[in-house]
TrEMBL record:
SUPFAM superfamilies: Probable bacterial effector-binding domain (SSF55136)
Organism lineage: Bacteria, Pseudomonadati, Acidobacteriota, Terriglobia, Terriglobales
Protein name: Transcriptional regulator YdeE
Organism: Tunturiibacter lichenicola
Pfam families assigned to the protein according to its UniProt record, in alphabetical order: Cass2
Gene3D superfamilies noted in UniProt: Regulatory factor, effector binding domain
Domain of life: Bacteria
Length: 158
């Protein structure tokens, strides 16, 4: 397992509360957030952005992967000053992260598969115990084609 130490950073974007049960049964909010961000070209309206790679942040965990969490889709930023109305800023804390790379394939298939793999990993396989403070996914050039996407999931560790 690839373990990395990261400095904290901010992400600004669109967010909602959800849980994995709702996402699995079709009553989730993640698809709606993606649709809204892309349809309305909201990423272009985020000030102080640090690049073009979309970041999906999972934070404000109620408990573990079975409880509610906040899902935010946006861009990393250099400052959270002057954030437009209807945008949310979340801080990804510094710390140790296990980096899990998805297989390549349709994004709607590889992202859930990667999370199922993470949920089934023991702390020994993952490289530590999950912190449930923040996890995030990076959508870079490898996910430009949604039918042949590959992403990296950064899982926060204690």
């Amino acid at each position: 397992m690839n373990i990395q130490q990261h400095a904290g950073f901010y992400v600004v974007g669109v967010a909602a509360r959800t849980d994995n049960a709702a996402e699995k049964n079709g009553n989730g909010k993640i698809g709606e957030i993606w649709h809204r961000l892309l349809r309305d070209n909201l990423a272009a309206k985020i000030p102080n952005k640090l690049g073009i790679d979309l970041i999906a942040v999972y934070t404000d965990y109620e408990s573990d992967h079975k409880g509610q969490y906040t899902y935010l889709l946006g861009l990393p930023v250099s400052s959270i000053q002057n954030i437009p109305k209807n945008f949310v800023a979340k801080h990804v804390p510094d710390g140790r992260y296990a980096v899990v790379t998805s297989n390549r394939g349709p994004v709607t298939k590889v992202v859930p598969e990667t999370w199922h793999r993470i949920w089934s990993m023991s702390p020994g396989e993952l490289g530590g115990t999950r912190s449930f403070r923040a996890d995030y996914e990076i959508y870079d050039q490898r996910s430009a084609d949604p039918e042949k996407a590959q992403i990296e999931v950064y899982v926060g560790l204690r």
